[in-house]
Amino acid sequence: MIIKPRIRGFICVTAHPTGCAANVQEQIKVVRNRGPITNGPKRALVIGASMGYGLASRIACGFGSNAATVGVFFDRPASNGKTATAGWYNSVAFERAAHDKGLYARSIVGDAFSDELKAEVVKLIKQDLRTIDTFVYSLASPRRIHPRTGVIAKNFVKTIGDPFCSKALDTDKGKVTESRVEPATEEELQQTIEVMGGEDLEFWIEALETGGVLEPDATVLTYSYIGPEVTWPIYKNGTIGQAKEHLIRTTLSINDRLKRSGGRALVSVNKAEVTQSSSAIPVVPLYNSLLFRVMKEKGIHEGCIEQIDRLFRTKLYADTEVPVDEEGRIRIDDLEMRPDVQEEIVRRWPLVNSENLYTISDFGTYKAEFLKLFGFGLDGVDYEAEVDPEVNFDE
Ligand code: NAD
Description:
It contains eleven helices and 13 strands. The protein has helices spanning 17-33, 52-65, 86-100, 115-128, 186-196, 199-210, 239-258, 284-297, 304-316, 339-348, 363-373; strands at 7-8, 11-12, 43-47, 68-73, 105-109, 132-137, 143-145, 152-154, 164-170, 175-181, 214-224, 264-269, 330-331. It starts with 6 loop residues before the first strand and ends in a 22-residue tail after the last helix. The structure holds nicotinamide-adenine-dinucleotide. Nicotinamide-adenine-dinucleotide binds next to helix 2, strand 4 and strand 11.
């Protein structure tokens, strides 16, 4: 079939297998061009490994330091004339590239929140790798079925306290609009913490330790975001921010435990990127469009792969002590948060409108990055050619 993008709101419901493979290859190239990451991961488990920061982490592990990787994600194959999800195509492409390089790579597709999937992962590690030395937790999910109670919690992107009105971007129409975000109820806040907070991370570490597959000196890595004041009511000070605080507290308490055996658990605060999850957060697409323009003008723009590669190379696996801020977090968002970058965004924020969206902000790059997530707009891919949507993992 000939596959074209079909966008519905914040999501593209089609994905292009050749384009996704090209996207994975581009990311592999970024890491390869920077040379090997010495003393990096050897056997890594990545949760949320098919898209965004998780995929970039898996690529940095595999192609930066030749690590064996197990990837966990929630994606579906092609069926009934529908394409697979982009994460499926990405992961097939990753595995093929890893196997071509002689690297171990296996993927487990399913609900990372469930006890069954955790047991399956532990079994696979025991059987094939014995242990892992690196655990990357990069989940972003709209909901979670609690593994012990069966209760479903949802991820609400809401404020706490007052409603929040702000400029925003209608990415479908390419227009600057107003968005109003309502405050969460206490129940909605608690549900968001259940989905995006640290309980599941705790359950993962418990399962890996009980199964005897976590090296005593392992590195556990989780991701968070802080961002600028314009997004604080909806992000840092909103429901997701609270959930992230919970994740950070959990990570730091796991760190206290692991460090007794030479291990460590760290939170990296990453830069805002266009990913499937972030495009659904109000205000973020407009902020990202401005951020991309300003960071490009300053020659410091980075995508997920450049961020994670730099995180591994210059912070996590450098020969020096890992630099953290006063709250114990690694700040790989340092370039995004540079005062000159943020001052320029603050200056442009009141000026941006539907007419100058492509000039004072970089909505063009935003749109291109969004389509790229689903394998569209990649150089060298013939989008008029027939392509088989059924692409499967090698046996
Ligand atoms: P993403 O949407 O690109 O990817 C999410 C991944 O989680 C996918 O692989 C998906 O398959 C997987 N997933 C979702 N639900 C699952 C489930 N139930 N079981 C198994 N896998 C599941 O997300 P992202 O934007 O890369 O976010 C990853 C992490 O990075 C999050 O912790 C996020 O807060 C953090 N982060 C993101 C940004 C950003 O701007 N995107 C910035 C800083 C930090």
